[in-house]
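Translate sequence into structure tokens.
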Amino acid sequence: MGPLSGLRVVELASIGPGPLCCMLLADLGAEVIRIDRTEPSGLGVPTKTRFEITGRNRKSGALDIKQPAGRDAALRLIDRADVLVDGFRPGVAERLGLGPEACHARNPGLVYGRMTGFGQTGPLSQAAGHDLNYIALTGALHAIGGGKSGTDKPIPPLNLVGDYGGGALYLAFGILAAIFERSRSGKGQVVDAAMVDGASSLMSIFFGMVASGAWNPKERAANILDGGTPFYDTYATSDGQWVSIGSLEPKFFAEMVERVGLDPSYVKRQHDKTCWPQMRADMVRLIGAKTRDEWSALLDGT
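Result follows.
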């Protein structure tokens, strides 16, 4: 049981954001039925089924939806569904007879969720891609990494920003918004979620900071949230482990100064960039003198 108990979801098997979106819906109580391919797709990173965490909490069955019998069986499931999640490239579901028009003709209240990389239209809509490609276009990838932008390459932040943050979460949010709207109109709709759009939306605060002059997009590890400040960064400990320090607000910074053992004069100079190199050097030395567990005991709960 859960808040989405009673919600029926049909998932057309895909990789990345589609499974995570459906996992979240299932975790909240939705009944999810996944329609698998009859043969391996050759997509994504091969993983044994028992380790596919995002495939949990749903029933599944293989159908050859390229054949009339398989397509008709899929449509019968969709007839009874509240939500359909389609992770195919634009136009594929339509060619299979499972596009929004065909499904809504049979089930007008269906919320049809679509997950793509570049959207349903445009010059890149038919291009294959992965998280790394999508976030590269948004500027998110450019902002992540060490050193100046011209000397060190950007570092992929796993596939969290495009696939999951800008993809799965935006699709899940859009689906639930459409379910809410259906409660008033009685009609379903298409939720078109593109990872490049979602990742761009996630970057909103940084676009604003660039426009205001509070963020330098030409350098990495030079800004307040990218490791450019000594009080928002990671440090090696004496046992080869790491601790993260995130003391942005003055009151937390002052407590960090005291607990780490920094010169108290830093408290009034937190945002004086001329002292940051020395502050960082002091933090490297002090934090590097204790083990991670020792720092955990000193800093946990602060």
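Note: DSSP finds eleven helices and eight strands in the chain.
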